[in-house]
Amino acid sequence: MKILHAVAAGLVPPLCAACGRNCRPGAPTCTRCSRRLAVAAPLTGLGPPGIDRVWSSASHEGVARDLVTALKFRRLLPVAGLMADRIHWLAPADLLSGAIVPVPTAPLRALARGFDPAGELAAALAERLGLPLEPCLVRKGGGRQVGKRRAQRIGHPPRIHARSEPPRSVLLIDDVLTTGATLSACARALREAGAVRVAAITFARRL
Ligand SMILES: [Zn+2]
């Protein structure tokens, strides 16, 4: 906390969430990283099975990848705001509708971290868009994806179900799209429980 107070008092220059260099007070990233992210191209296309449309604000590389890591492992909340701003500004307007549903984190991981990156991003986005936030999905088991080989991740999709009646029109939110197996599992659970439209937005997409 002493460091936070020193940052707030302007005694210690804040550090860029992506590259760790000094940056302006109040800015989550330095000017160089902001410029690099600004020119990153969004990715759009057909979603994984069960998802009507998917849109990602950048490919999972460079500054975008560094920010995903900062949110996931260093719990930097201003990063969730920065990601939500980018999605708000760049995503196709007709995609930004329905109710926001975060992709659920595995309970053991959320407990261990005390932090849920997709949940934080979804909350920041719902606030900016004025859309309802409905965290109606839960995930069973460990479902750990980080570090598993791609074939293993595809072979064992996470077990996800709806704990309450989902909205008819859903906008699923996650920090990063990898194989699409998690989004498909979410879509299956949502549609079985009554959802009609299921679109998805992620901050980054691994190609
Ligand atoms: Zn930087």
Name the strands of the widest sheet in spatial order: 1-2-7-6-3
Largest sheet descriptor: 5 strands, mixed
Strand-pairing-aware structural class: alpha/beta
Number of discrete helical segments = 8
Cα-to-Cα separation, first versus last residue? 39 Å
Envelope shape:
globular
Question: Over all CA atoms, what is the radius of gyration?
Answer: 17 Å
Number of strand elements? 7
SS strand fraction? 15-25%
Order of helices and strands: HHEEHHEHHEHEEHE
Mean pLDDT: 87
List keywords for this structure.
single chain, 207 residues, alpha/beta, 5-stranded mixed sheet, two-stranded antiparallel ribbon, 8 helices, 38% helix, binds zinc ion
Structural notes for this entry:
The chain is 38% helix and 19% strand. It is α/β, with parallel strands linked by helices and 207 residues long. The strands form two sheets. It has a five-stranded mixed sheet. Strands 4-5 form a two-stranded antiparallel sheet. Helix 8 links the parallel strand 6 (169-177) and strand 7 (197-205). Helix 3 packs across helix 4 (77-90). It is globular and about 50 Å long. The protein starts with a helix and ends with a strand. Bound molecules: zinc ion. Residues 16, 18-19, 21, 29-30, 32-33 line the site of zinc ion.
Provide a concise account of the structure shown.
With 207 residues, this protein is of the alpha/beta class. 38% of the residues lie in helices and 19% in strands. The chain has eight helices and seven strands.
